[in-house]
Amino acid sequence: MKERVTITLDNSLINDLDNLVDGVKIRNRSHAIEFLLRKSLTLKKPRKALILAGGKGTRLRPITYEIPKPMVPVQGRPLIEHTISLLRKYDIRDIMVSVGYLGEKVKEYFGDGKKFGVNIKYIFEDEPLGTAGCLRLAREWLDEPFIMFNGDNLVNIDLEGLFDFHMRNKGQATIALTTVDDPSSFGVAILKGGVITNFVEKPKTPISKLINAGVYVIEPEVVNLVPDGTASMEYDVFPKILEKEKLRGYPFEGQWLPTDNTERYEKAIREWRGV
Questions:
Q1: Pairwise CA distance, residues 15 & 234, whole Å
Q2: How does 68-85 read in b/e, with b if 16+ C-beta sit within 10 Å?
Q3: Does domain 42-271 match CATH 3.90.550.10?
Q4: What is the distance, to the nearest Å, from the Cα of residue 6 to the centroid of all Cα atoms in its chain?
Q5: What is the pLDDT along the chain (275 residues), one digit of tens a residue?
Q6: How far is C-alpha 273 from the geometric centre of its chain's CA atoms?
Q7: Contact 140, 146 (CB under 8 A)
Q8: Residue 234, Cβ neighbours under 10 Å: how many?
Q9: Which of 20, 17, 13, 12 is nearest to 161 (CA)?
Q10: Is the peptide bond before 62 cis (omega within 30 degrees of 0)?
Q11: E strands within 59-209?
Q12: Other Cβ atoms closer than 10 A to 18
């Protein structure tokens, strides 16, 4: 239930409010005021993040014969260091990194995270567990809503806005969504309001240009939906949440660059503007 409130503001503040209205994230002036009040007053903020960094990076060979995919350099820094910088920007300090292939090199570089201003713990996957399997290994640590990243993307996103959206829309999982011209190699979503009504991984016939950006907010109970063995968020978990009408989508306009093949990696090196 909402109530109407009349307020008087200086013209300069009204102009600042109107500049926030983009028709997607902020729908109108009233929504802008509500968004800023929630952002200012909310007590619930993200504290934990999980970064998936266990892939072999076969499409980046020969680079990844000796360097684990999360450590390939982008503008002089390892790929996932950019994600860690984004988390530190939003004061999210407790980070779990799931590693596999050449994982010791990741741990050797980042250690416990102190020199990067964060606290890092590690999960070691003896065998590749996919984009969901590692959640079972981190079950005890994932005791509150957390932000999850696919480790092979560069992204600049308002994590507080994403988390606030998730909490207000009461889903089990929220997928950050961006747009691309050719969505055929990504997970594609149809969005109604903030609710994802359909999600198809790598569709032959694209149903939308809104794609999964590889950043999520996940509720702890989602871990119970992960099957044993190798498991995928896209194929094994999201469809279960979708069926319960608990899958949410958060469109954003920040920079997003995948690095999962040589062509995309080269583009990321050229175009990434940092966080």
A1: 41
A2: bbbbbebeeebbbbbbbb
A3: yes
A4: 37
A5: 567 778 887 777 788 788 888 877 688 888 888 777 766 655 478 899 999 987 776 777 877 788 888 888 999 999 999 999 999 999 999 999 999 888 899 999 999 999 999 999 999 988 888 889 999 999 999 999 999 999 889 999 999 999 999 999 999 999 999 999 888 888 899 999 899 999 988 888 878 889 999 999 999 999 999 998 889 999 999 999 999 999 999 999 899 999 888 899 999 999 999 88
A6: 18
A7: no
A8: 19
A9: 20
A10: yes
A11: 73-74, 77-78, 94-99, 119-124, 146-150, 153-155, 173-179, 187-192, 195-201
A12: 12
Q: Which residues contact 6 (CB under 8 A, 6 or more apart)?
A: none
Segments making up each domain of the chain, as ranges: 12-40, 42-271
**Length of the chain in residues, anyone?**
275
Task: Give the bridge partners for 174, in sequence order.
Answer: 217, 248
Tell me, yes or no, if the pTM score tops 0.90: no
Nearest to 25 by CA among 197, 157, 206: 157
Taking alpha carbons only, the member of 105, 130, 119 closest to residue 236 is 130
| Residue 122: both structure tokens together | 């590690």
User: Which amino acid makes up residue 83?
Assistant: T
| pLDDT computed for residue 251 by the predictor | 95
C-alpha atoms less than 13 angstroms from C-alpha of 63 in its C-beta half-sphere: 17
Element (H, E) at 265: helix 262-271
C-alpha dihedral sign at 89, 163, 201, 186: negative
Angle of helix 159-169 relative to helix 79-89, nearest 10 degrees, comes to: 70
If phi > 0 it is left, if psi is from -120 to 50 it is alpha, else beta; for residue 30 that is alpha
